[in-house]
Amino acid sequence: MQHDTEKYRRIFEGMSPEEIEEMNRLNDEEHQRQAEAFRTGYEKDICYLCNKPFKTISKSNPCLHWLLRQCKFKKKDFPKVYEKYGYGNIAAYIRWCANQDRFLSNINDLEGEKSDRKVLSYTVKWKNVEWTFDCSKNDFQGHQGTSIDYPHYHFQMRIDGRQFINFNDFHVPFTDHDLFILKNSMEQGDWFKQNFGAIGSGMQDAVSVELEDILEHTIRSDNEDEATYHFSTMIDASENPISGEEIYEIQKEAERTGKSFAFVAQKRLKERAKVQTVISPADSIPDIASRTEHKRR
Questions:
Q1: Nearest to 263 by CA among 206, 210, 215
Q2: Least C-beta-crowded within 10 Å: which of 56, 111, 223, 246?
Q3: Do residues 164 and 171 touch, judged by C-beta distance below 8 A?
Q4: Whole-angstrom Cα distance, residue 107 to residue 123?
Q5: Model pTM?
Q6: Contact of 92 with 197, CB cutoff 8 Å
């Protein structure tokens, strides 16, 4: 099925600001409704889609909560899940779960770590489970002249670091809806963007926030494993030396207020010193699992 993304751009450009606002509002409302239902169920270990506990599996009614592996889900059951749910649904569900466990930093979808050859390449962690989505440009076009000449992605799942589903076990087809969303995101990215809502955000969203907002709104974490960001702050006070005592006071104020050292230093020293802060993702975010693509002869 071909998707003419230019056609959708023309439709979008023909809409009034009021129509766009109304469309976004309806989207947001639906997302809020689903997110609320998801959270309510999650707190009771119940899946909001099938209303059954995470620990149950019903072969006649495949469900996304199987992927949490709280039930007796086996690798051979995976096609039942992806035949019922498209990539967008699967990705949203596990991202939402990951963010209940640890917000943002359980999802490594950093663009800077993704190869140019990839359409998708990111890893999501939840408790003892890790999932990775991988799709090269070749996968997205389908391997012409082979039995897998349809657009597809590869999926890896690890439990306690051990193999459960490997990348080469399945060629998971994209649905028409997935292709519509992904193609528009890739070709019309200036006005169309796939996102998974606030509760599905990952590290790419986290590092896209304005520096000042990150400094102002983050709270310090004494546990590196729970941190989202890593701050490196340099203070250049060569023209107006600062005492060790003042640095100690800044440290104490940061601890007392829960703010970062960088934020307090910027505030207290802005007239007297150059304070530079480099913000990077925390070391504790999961690594993106890499897939070796086999050359076809």
A1: 215
A2: 223
A3: no
A4: 6
A5: 0.82
A6: yes
Q: Same domain, yes or no, for 166 and 260?
A: no
In a domain, residue 171? The reply is yes
Q: How far is CA 272 from CA 105, 237, 253, 267, 288, in A?
A: 35, 7, 18, 11, 42
Q: What is the mean pLDDT of residues 231-243?
A: 85
- The answer to whether 37 and 97 have CB atoms below 8 angstroms apart is no
Q: What is the band of 1 on the pLDDT scale with cuts at 50, 70, 90?
A: very low
**Spatial distance between the Cα atoms of 246 and 249, rounded to a whole number of angstroms:** 5
Task: Identify the pLDDT of residue 297.
Answer: 41
Domain with 269, as residue range(s), is 229-281
Q: Answer positive or negative: Cα dihedral of 276, 279, 282, 287.
A: negative
Six-digit token string for 246: 């003042």
What does DSSP assign to residue 150?
A: S
Do 250 and 114 fall within a single domain? no
Q: Which residue has the tokens 């663009």?
A: 111
Residues 167, 268 share a domain: no
- The three-state secondary structure class of 73 is coil
Could you read off the pLDDT of 14-57 as tens digits, one per residue?
888 898 889 888 888 988 999 999 999 999 999 999 999 999 99
Distance, in Å, from the CA atom of 175 to the CA atom of 184, rounded to the nearest integer, reads 14
Check whether residue 24 and residue 124 sit in a common domain. yes
- Reference 182, options 166, 197, 195; nearest CA is 195
φ, ψ for residue 66, nearest 5 deg: -55, -35
| 219 lies in some domain | no
Residue 263: both structure tokens together: 């934020």
Q: Average pLDDT, stretch 206-225?
A: 82
